[in-house]
Amino acid sequence: MHSIFELFKVGLGPSSSHTVGPMVAAYRFASSLGDSALETLIRVQVELFGSLALTGKGHATDSAVLGGLSGLLPDQVDPDRFQSVVQTVRDTNQIALLGRTRIPFDESQDLIFHQREMLPRHSNGMRFTATFNDRPSVREIYYSVGGGFVMHDSEFEQETSGAVIGVPFDFRSATELLQMCEENGLTIADLVHANERTWRNDDQIGAQLDLLWSVMESCIERGCNTAGILPGGLGVKRRAPGIYQKLKEQSALADPLRQLDWVSLFALAVNEENAAGGKVVTAPTNGAAGVIPAVLAYYVRFVPGANRAGIHCFLKTAGAIGLLYKLNASLSAAEMGCQGEVGVACSMAAAGLAACLNGTNEQIENAAEIGMEHNLGLTCDPVRGLVQVPCIERNTMGATKAINAARLAVLYGDGSHRVSLDKVIETMRQTGVDMQSKYKETSLGGLAVNVVNC
């Protein structure tokens, strides 16, 4: 069982699996070589496979690898510094490994995109090779498995289904989660908090939740106030600043749906920032990073009585649902399509909002189920491999669906329903397995091929 703070990570756009993950993998590889080996290092070569190779350019995977090898981590580096370090590598054809050992690096020869090959364990595969002048070469394989999670090749063999020592509530399904809550008289948020005490004390848990919301809020604000054209060549104009100005000038009483316009704005703002390489929270991925902040901002702005405790409750409840998807299916669009990103984010946000609307545990589970059920089969088909079309608008749809799901479950439901969350998660997994690879973050099908000149 992971901590929810492994699920919610601060990182750089535009992609958790294609930017955040590869940066972390490159950093891990460079760090694994050891100080003495760095002194005699003469070359590093990186090979990208599968989805990473097919859409890596549009997702800034190449830049992420250069940043990670240079010693940068996505949760710590400022976006401007990241761009500066990467540009220096390209201008000089040299890379300072971990910021120390400078070696030649010819991107055309040392960063290879194998678009017709896949490594065996996952579509997002990376192979790193280090060559020395006094010892044998070192070669390691890493996989970016979705949501910024990275696994070394050997870690696939080490994974077990056993309980984590010290975690009081090691739930493996929604059924177990509800049962544990009932037996112990806990809300889902309370149960998650008890588990998080395995790694942090109460003050640290609260501080980390505050940090996540602070990054989300800042991302919304930057997105609402930053105009221009998104990078990548599609010529997509940032829409959030214009919408923000219009909404500020209009009365909330003039249109009963004005609140949803604000929700759409919040989601657009975050995902335009993400597409520009800004700092976001993977929630649970970068491609779906706008859904949870938009729904949480809806709670803060429009739900009477909203407060810090409610924000914490929202994130802990959403985190519990996200962990169920991580455990029983996948958060990777390269495996599941966009149902594994926006669909999961919608499900998580619906659960979080349902908790803040004083829903019972059963109503929360119902909201999460509704949120996913109506995203089943959602493909990942980014035009030119950029996290822009249709990804940005797709977050607005996920956010509004989540609000609707929470309201249906809490305001007009009693928690009883025919399709369980466990069943819908398994259905998502099966659908992802059956989905053709051209619809799973390869840009070989769907809008990616039918809308060539946007």
Which structural category do the helix and sheet elements fall into?
alpha+beta
Tally of individual helices: 21
Helix content: 40-55%
H and E order:
HEHHEHHHEEHEEEEHHHHHHEHHHHHHHH
Q: Describe the sheet with the most strands.
A: 5 strands, mixed
Strand order of the largest sheet: 5-2-6-7-8
Q: What coarse outline follows from CA principal-axis ratios?
A: globular
Tally the beta strands: 9
Q: What is the strand content? A: 5-15%
Overall average residue pLDDT: 95
Radius of gyration over C-alpha positions, nearest whole angstrom: 22 Å
Distance between the termini: 42 Å
pLDDT < 50 runs, ≥5 residues = 160-164
Summary keywords:
5-stranded mixed β-sheet; 53% helix; two-stranded antiparallel sheet; 454 residues; alpha+beta; 9 strands
Structure report:
This protein is of the alpha+beta class. Helix content is 53%, strand content 11%. It contains 21 helices and nine strands. It has a five-stranded mixed β-sheet. A two-stranded antiparallel ribbon has the order 1-9. A two-stranded antiparallel ribbon has the order 3-4. The longest helix has 24 residues. The two termini are 42 Å apart.
Q: How do the helices and strands line up, and which of them pair or pack?
A:
Layout: H1 4-7, E1 9-12, H2 16-32, H3 35-39, E2 41-49, H4 50-55, H5 61-69, H6 79-92, E3 94-97, E4 101-104, H7 107-110, E5 111-114, E6 124-132, E7 138-146, E8 149-152, H8 153-158, H9 174-184, H10 188-196, H11 202-225, H12 240-249, H13 258-275, E9 279-282, H14 291-302, H15 308-328, H16 333-336, H17 342-356, H18 361-373, H19 391-410, H20 421-434, H21 447-450
Parallel strand pairs: 2-5
Antiparallel strand pairs: 1-9, 2-6, 3-4, 6-7, 7-8
Helix pairs in contact: 2-5, 5-6, 10-15, 11-13, 11-15, 12-13, 13-14, 13-19, 14-17, 14-19, 15-17, 17-18, 17-19, 18-19, 18-20
